[in-house]
Specification:
By secondary structure, the chain is an alpha/beta fold. The chain has 15 helices and 22 strands. The strands form 6 sheets. The protein has a 7-stranded mixed beta sheet with strand order 14-15-16-13-12-18-19, with helices on both faces. Strands 9-8-7-10-11-21 form a 6-stranded mixed beta sheet, sandwiched between helices. The chain is globular and about 65 Å long.
Length: about 475
């Protein structure tokens, strides 16, 4: 795979300060496909300085002009969709069709939404005898994960650009090639030098340097809750703002009277997509006890429709997890589920293929709310099915974790589903299979994070407020 041997800083590719490298492997066959520089504090400092120098003129650029450049960036992503999808498949292991439709399609939709929103957003308003101005917060340090390598970049970069901020991006170590392609797209779109900067590197070195740098005004991080806590502490010590999109343990609540077959099939698909590596994956399926065994049988049949294998094969629906560490972690959770008494209905800790970091699609029944697999984020293709007696117990189970990122409710009618969803402690709930909306705010309650991404609420994260009294 093509890889740049440097950092994108100040509108050009520059040689890295250090000599350390990050090797990138294809998780489907475990083969080395590229290497990129491991950024140092010096690289991050150069990127922050470039972003700081570019900030005054970018902040002063008319919102409509900034929005037009986001539109140009969107157009480049559209033109290079196939190349980007192939790169994501190579370094993440996502089936190629899913890479094209979701990993690239969703970011294109998000970029389009901010191209439109940036041109129409009300950056000032009159309140009584005051004019209230919404101004860019400054330099943003964006730290993104590997599970949706382009989407998470666009979900931070596009609103920050629309707000008038400049950025330094530190992408995940496992998927830096996608980030480099994005930097190429930024350059091709004509976004001014220094407005966007890219430093590849590890979390403990480059990521920490971004979070701690005194020239960074806001840190936007997506990843694990444990790392989010450390970033929050680092930013808090410097009294700088943070936006944290962290872990999840989302509940898929199927109420009596819902279309059980449809709800189960959709729920299984939600967990198996992206090999379960989605922070909002519906990993807990809650079913009324009267329909429980039928739901378990339906789930077992549904996972059989997710064959794993070569991500480039059109028949493959389940790719590998991203690396050996993640594979071993997921297997450990599966073993823990068996140990704690859950009933293994499908899958397990076996090896589906001789090569690659594959996990068999796994379903557990007879899961109780206190079990490890019902409380901790697994981040793999593992579904837990829990029974409940009535809606109050279902709600207690749904709300009974440290997380509150996503969720779903299925019911015979929309009114019943919405009434239940209003009582859930979570940031986003799909009603009877509700579709992705790039304008709806995404973010969590409790330990799932701070702040929101996407749409006008996502744009607001990158603004600060000034009032003028007359």
């Amino acid at each position: 795979m093509k890889a740049h041997d440097g950092m994108y800083i100040g509108g050009e590719w520059r040689a890295a300060v250090g000599r350390e490298r990050i090797e990138v492997f294809n998780p489907a066959d475990e083969q080395l496909i590229a290497s990129v520089p491991a950024g140092t504090e010096e690289d991050v400092d150069a990127a922050v300085r470039a972003a700081r120098a570019a900030f005054p003129s970018w902040a002063a650029t008319a919102p409509a002009e900034r929005a037009a450049l986001i539109g140009a960036l969107r157009d480049v992503l559209v033109a290079r969709k196939g190349e980007i999808a192939e790169t994501i498949t190579a370094e993440l292991g996502s089936p190629l069709g899913f890479s094209e439709m979701v990993h690239v399609g969703a970011p294109i939709a998000v970029a389009s939404s901010f191209a439109e929103l940036g041109a129409s957003y009300a950056f000032e308003e009159r309140i009584g005898n005051s004019t209230v101005l919404l101004e860019p917060v400054g330099v943003v340090g964006a730290i993104t994960p590997w599970n949706y390598p382009l989407h998470q970049i666009v979900a931070k970069v596009a609103p920050a650009l629309a707000a008038g901020c400049t950025l330094v991006l530190k992408p995940a170590e496992d998927t830096p090639l996608t980030a480099q392609l994005f930097a190429e797209a930024v350059h091709e779109a004509g976004i001014p030098a220094g407005v966007f900067n890219l430093v590849t590197g590890t979390g403990p070195v480059a990521g920490q340097a971004v979070a701690a740098h005194e020239g960074v005004d806001l840190v936007s991080f997506t990843g694990s809750t444990a790392v989010g806590k450390r970033i929050g502490a680092t930013a808090g010590a410097a009294v700088k703002r943070v936006a944290l999109e962290l872990g999840g343990k989302s509940a898929n609540v199927i109420l009596p009277g819902a279309d059980l077959a449809k709800a189960v099939a959709a729920g299984v698909g939600h967990v198996m997509n992206n090999a379960g590596q989605s922070c909002n994956a519906l990993t807990r399926m809650l079913v009324h006890r009267d329909e429980y065994e039928e739901a378990v049988s339906l789930a077992a049949a549904a996972v059989a429709k997710y064959p794993s294998g070569d991500p480039r094969d059109p028949g493959t629906r389940l790719g590998p997890v991203v690396n050996a560490k993640q594979r071993d972690r997921v297997r450990g959770f599966i073993a823990k589920g068996v140990e704690e008494g859950a009933r293994l209905v499908a899958g397990g800790t076996g090896t589906p293929h001789e090569q690659g970091y594959f996990i068999a699609p796994t379903v557990f029944a007879d899961v109780t709310p206190g079990m490890t697999i019902a409380q901790e984020e697994i981040f793999g293709p593992v579904l837990s099915i829990l029974p409940y007696e009535d809606q109050d117990e279902a709600l207690a189970i749904a709300n009974g974790t440290d997380y509150g990122l996503g969720g779903a409710v299925w019911a015979a009618d929309e009114e019943t589903a919405v009434a239940f969803a209003r009582r859930m402690d979570t940031g986003q709930v799909d009603i009877n299979g509700g579709r992705f909306n790039p304008l709806a705010p995404f973010g969590g309650y409790k330990k799932s994070g701070v702040g929101r991404e996407l749409g006008p609420h996502g744009l607001a994260e990158y603004l600060q407020t000034k009032s003028l009294q007359f």
